[in-house]
Amino acid sequence: MKVVDLPFVRKPTRSLCLTALSLACVSSAFAQSSSPPLTPDQRADQLIKRMSLDDMHHMVQSYNTMVAQQPPGGIGTAGYVPALPALGIPALQENDAGIGVHNYPVGKDKNGQPTLVRGTAGDATPLPSLLGLAATWNPQIAYAGGSMIGGEAHSQGINMLLAGGINLAREPRNGRNFEYLGEDPLLAARMDGAEIRGIQSQHVLSTIKHYALNAQETNRLTVSSNIDERAMRESDLLAFEIAIEDGHPASVMCGYNKINHVYDCSNSHLLNDVLKHDWKFPGWVMTDWGADHGVNDALDGTDQVSGIDFGSGFSIGSMSSSFGAPLTQALANGTVPRSRLQDMVHRILRSMYAGGVFADPPVIKPLNADADALVSQHAAEQAIVLLKNDHAQLPLSAGVKTIAIIGGHADAGVLSGGGSAQVWPIGGPAIPASQPPVQNVWQWMVYDPSSPMKALQKMMPGVTVRYDDGSDPTRAAALAKSSDVAIVFATQWMCEAIDAPNLSLPNGQDALIDAVAAANPHAVVVLENGGPVKMPWLSKVSAVVEAWYPGARGGEAIAGVLTGKVNPSGRLPITFPQDEQQLPRPQLTDALDVDYNIEGAAVGYKWFDEKKLEPLFPFGFGLSYSHFGYSDLHVNTKGDRVMVSFKVTNLGDRAGMDTPQVYVGMPANSGEAPRRLGGFEKVALQPKESRTVTVTIDPRLLAVFDVSGDQWQVAAGSYPIQVGRSSRDLVLNGTAAVAAARVAP
Ligand code: BGC
Q1: Quick check: helix, strand or coil at residue 525?
Q2: What is the pLDDT, as a whole number, of residue 12?
Q3: For ligand 1, is residue 78 a contact (CB within 6 Å)?
Q4: Nearest-CA neighbor of 62 among 323, 372, 262?
Q5: What is the pTM of this model?
Q6: Ligand 1 in contact with 96 (CB < 6 A)?
Q7: What HEC string does 554-591 produce?
Q8: Which of 48, 190, 335, 426 has the greatest count of CB atoms below 10 A from its CB?
């Protein structure tokens, strides 16, 4: 598939440039006046002609400035490539993101609280977790979120966000699932592509990461993800392929792990053959922090080594990295040809031009915090998934006079995930940040200051709302017993570099929910979690609300759903298993090899379908306070595209949003799982309103990857097409008559 350049849209000239960049501002403004406009590639070529070997070498390493004392021009980002003022090349300030603009703790103050590098606590707005964003099934929400965090980055001197996490959820215990977009390549890619487009609309570059198959944190620096080529092309790589086509990220970050025993950043097949040759990716490959493994990485397709120590006394020349002295030597003796260095630099510069960072440098200015928080709230409102609602327990009815709120620090805030995706919220955390059970300075358990309890009180004036912290199940049950409704807030903290030991809620919360449910028949559970959890108490509670990590205004979003101000519309982007025994790997492996050939391309729901397993909640599932009907299915084929149209009707008496999902059945002899998500559309409908939806299915979703021919191959045949409410609730059935086709990657 062809990868096209980002359209270059000039924003209105900004008057104030960052001091460190002002020279670059002047010279880029000058460069703007040239006409006719050159393409980003032509501009990069022109610039390279003026660059010395040292200038070019300078571009292929970034420095870690997550330290208390900054080098000249550093602002405390994970990656910093200093400006080259004589050439008008601005600095690259690469900051972690995905959920928001990350603030790096670099130490602790006298109260044991983290001290931050950039600004003070209070300069970034967290979105819901990316898994939550995926649960919206709404690329417009992902675009708006990306655009918001891109705007906040631009206002802080940052011109690149290390965003776009898209590793498929092969391992539900993975500590970083909250930073990724679930288990399906199409859903993940469409959401990721939209987030990246949103970020880059602000002239802030984005990565996509971690390329590839970085599916668990256990042994993340050494583990080998072992998988056959065809399976990897049809699953994890397909997610990257579609997201790159859609989002045009400036850079791809190669991961820490190995694939089939070769490190990601030394993996010529992954980088040169697939990414750069097959997908024609024009941008640059940067390593994850410390993921370089020698100067030959340059020949294997890596273009930039990230996050190098800049050394004592801010001497930028004294670092040691694969692309430091070893590259100087390799260039001198010709093992890495100069043309390769030129290509590395070309890829960086052309992406900086294409993304608008020359023309529109960051400008320090205050955030529009209220507007940004609203973007996050709207995302959270669409992310929340109503999993169970017996006897219309929710929304809370007017007859409810007393509510018990139990656990999860719901009186103060909502949980967020830890690690490099962490955002230190505006105003600081709701309760002091803590570090259970790890000691790394960058891993903190942070509650965003948005209390679901306070929001509920505001929305239900006159109702008595009482709080118990849940530490004593007997005491919590007593409060539940004396209340009309009891709402337990259950939390599961997840963090980069640490996987969950199992799928159980930690810290005795299952027993707490049991006790509360035994005391009150109107027990509701609200989950704030990083991935699927087991629910041994499910049959005893009347409602379950999946809120993920809901971000800056998560409390308001949860209260909106509980009261009915918001009609829930989230759908699961990940299967919830009944227990670990249903997984391809019942035990999380701490071996140095993980066998992903067990499930191959059948990740998540595809595995459950293939093995005929009944999950706790299937992929795509979610309830509404309304209900929706599907009719009038038409399936047409035009060339290699299958078009599916059908009518969606809101049959209830409340306005709401539905997400009809189109699944493609694979031929029985194809060696594939029974069905794949082929498309989806989120539709807002008034009561009794109908809308005709048309979904076009990408031919790759009907195809198998032919490894020897290096192409997608669609077999001629009659493909079942199903439209449903989830992967397990399929309502309309049709077929698509498809001709044989070959599709180049
Ligand atoms: C993470 C990346 C992150 C980088 C820079 C690494 O440990 O894996 O996702 O972008 O650090 O902070």
Answers
A1: strand
A2: 33
A3: yes
A4: 323
A5: 0.94
A6: yes
A7: HHHHHHHHHHCCCCCCCCCCCCECCCHHHCCCCCCCCC
A8: 190
